[in-house]
Amino acid sequence: MSRTRPPSSIAVARLAGVSQSAVSRTFTPGGIVSPATRAKVLAAASTLGYRPNLLSRSLTTGRSGIVAVAVGGLSNPFHAMALDCFATGLQRRGQQVMLVVVEDEWALGSAVELLSGYQVDAVLSSLSVNARDVAEALTRFGVPIVTMNSSVTNRWVRTVAADDHEAGAAIAKHLYGQGARRFGYIAGRSGTLAQERREAGFRQGLAEFGITDCERAQGNHLHSGGAASVRALYASGTGPDGLFCLNDLTAMGAIDALRVEFGLRCPEDVLVAGYDNIDGSAWPPYRLTTVDVGLDRVAAEAFALIEEEDGGPPEVLVQPRLVLRASTRS
């Protein structure tokens, strides 16, 4: 059975009584065409069922209109939230989304190398780049790459981040103001910008009250890491009464372990705060005090950066928002 070929721009031009270049300009973002011509072209395209070929357009404009979104760690709801925010925002801008799932920053380089064959205009990622050799490898592809919370940037690799240091300090002041006097911090992977800034800000905030002792446990960004960290912090029988966790998923695991394994109440016995403001943080079993990074603002700044093909700031900071809930008696 023979397949019917899709209608071409030539057929649309003939039906509309305009030139082929007028059809091309009509379907090119920013293309200059009169309202009357645009109306005739769109009517003809609708009649014929015509859809522009994005790959063919890239041959003449040098831009495909495709932005790759590279995500990893989708077991953490924050990355799924970031993906949704990036993809929705790009589509509203008239750009197409190519989704790439990678394990970590080291896999980002091989992913971008593959993507370069598809002539993507830019790459967005909720992953961070923290190794200089990874950042240098990414520059080979000559497309803007915007990440979140990267400690290494260059001409092509830029980052958008929340002011994690300020947010960590705000959490410390809040916990102290709510009556906590023995403090603990559950960390994430070492060497990441978000981890370093959040912990440094938290400790600086405590230092303003003359507090230098803060117990520390190593988490894994997941619910299981929060629970395991609580076992380590409370094994002696006396643990922190004010606990800050690197992210919400860790904090939720910590709250579950405190209640189920140690019989401790939150917030009556232990105040717990997280970070990210994922949907689950507001669920009744947790009602978690957290920090909202403002993903809409992060995405808007990222979209601005991918338009800066040469230049632009290496890092853009957005101001996060403290969200107070019942886990800290708020």
What share of residues are in beta strands? 15-25%
Rg over CA atoms, rounded to whole Å, is 25 Å
Name of the CATH homologous superfamily of the largest domain: Response regulator
Number of helices: 12
Average per-residue pLDDT, rounded, comes to 88
The top-level CATH class of the largest domain is: Alpha Beta
Distance between the termini: 68 Å
How much helicity do the residues have? Answer: 40-55%
Order of helices and strands: HHHHEHEHEHEEHEHEHEHEEHEE
How many separate domains make up the residues?
Answer: 3
Strand line-up across the major sheet: 2-1-3-4-5-11
User: How many strands in all?
Assistant: 12
Q: What is the third-level CATH name, the topology of the largest domain? A: Rossmann fold
Unreliable runs, pLDDT <50, ≥5 residues? none
- Shape assignment: elongated
Structural class: alpha/beta
CATH architect. name of the largest domain: 3-Layer(aba) Sandwich
Described by strand count, sense and barrel closure, the largest sheet is: 6 strands, parallel
In words, what does this structure look like?
- The chain has 330 residues and is of the alpha/beta class.
- It has 3 domains: 44 residues, Orthogonal Bundle (434 Repressor (Amino-terminal Domain)), CATH 1.10.260.40; 121 residues, Rossmann fold (3-Layer(aba) Sandwich); 129 residues, Response regulator (Rossmann fold, 3-Layer(aba) Sandwich).
- Helices cover 42% and strands 16% of the residues.
- The chain is built from 12 helices and 12 strands.
- It has a 6-stranded parallel sheet with strand order 2-1-3-4-5-11, with helices on both faces. Strands 7-6-8-9 form a 4-stranded parallel sheet, sandwiched between helices. Strands 10-12 form a two-stranded antiparallel sheet.
- Helix 11 links the parallel strand 8 and strand 9.
- The protein is elongated, with a radius of gyration of 25 Å.
- 44% of the residues are buried.
